[in-house]
Amino acid sequence: MTPLCLTWRLQSQNGALSRFLPPRLAARGHTLSWLNGSWLVVFGGCGQQGLLNDVFVLDLDAQHPTWREVASDSPPLPRSWHSSCTLDGSKLVVSGGCAESGVLLSDTFLLDLTKEKPSWKEIPTSWSSRLGHTLSVYGKTKLFMFGGLAKSGSLRLRSSDAYTLDVGEDNPQWRQLATTGFPSVGPPPRLDHVTVSLPCGRIIIFGGSIAGLHSPAELFLLDPAEEKPTWRILNVPGSRRSSRGDTAPVLLVAPGSWFLVDTPGRSGF
């Protein structure tokens, strides 16, 4: 297979780059989600004035793409290092993270951006408060949550917990997923990993921060819809990615292709 040569490009329109720059300075800890075919959605993060809980969208297909703020009722607490994903091409889901006081959060909120006046809806959460976990969507209305730095009594420990939630139910509830496979119940506990949901509904876990180790190089696969979900390690041929510390890997899935990008992460956990 011939290696791909990819180049990053700064989006612009007639040289007017300012419209594509973030509307407020959230330098870290925010989330960026894809929505409605061509929209990008930014939520929260840590800016120069502290933590944020605002929502901005950018339509890349617009004649003159411009960031705009989405006014909403009953927003979640300002936060950073949370996780987010999108449902049905119209709904933003936000969970967990770290509040202004440094307290870890264990909440889940949903915002329907197609409404004329969007209002946040809170969904009861049963897992322990955490940051650095991931959310992904499978089966149209189902969410998969994995890992993170979770509160355990007075400690904060890396987690390998897996939970699912069906937003399509009348009273959605998080349920812990009982899994089998490697090594016995799943991948080693981690945070700052990436999770990708494939079109078939399977979940891939990659990278992250593991206690005493650099960022791991294994790819883990799980089908949460199986009667007895089982973790598997993918043996991918070719040059093996070396383990590196303090990285935040990005795994992109396109039809027939996978792309892996390593970016500087945060340390101290």
Key descriptive features of the protein:
mainly beta, 269 residues, 0% helix, single chain, 23 strands, globular, 5-stranded mixed sheet, 5-stranded antiparallel sheet
Q: What's the layout of helices and strands?
A:
Blueprint: E1 26-28, E2 31-35, E3 39-47, E4 50-59, E5 68-69, E6 83-87, E7 91-98, E8 104-112, E9 121-123, E10 130-131, E11 134-138, E12 142-146, E13 149-152, E14 155-158, E15 162-166, E16 175-176, E17 180-181, E18 194-197, E19 203-206, E20 219-222, E21 230-234, E22 247-254, E23 257-264
Parallel strand pairs: 17-21
Antiparallel strand pairs: 1-3, 2-3, 3-4, 4-5, 6-7, 7-8, 8-9, 10-13, 11-12, 12-15, 13-14, 15-16, 18-19, 19-20, 20-21, 22-23
Give a description of the structure.
With 269 residues, the protein is mostly beta strands. It has no helices and 23 strands. Helices cover 0% and strands 43% of the residues. 30% of the residues are buried. Mean pLDDT is 83; it is low at 253-261.
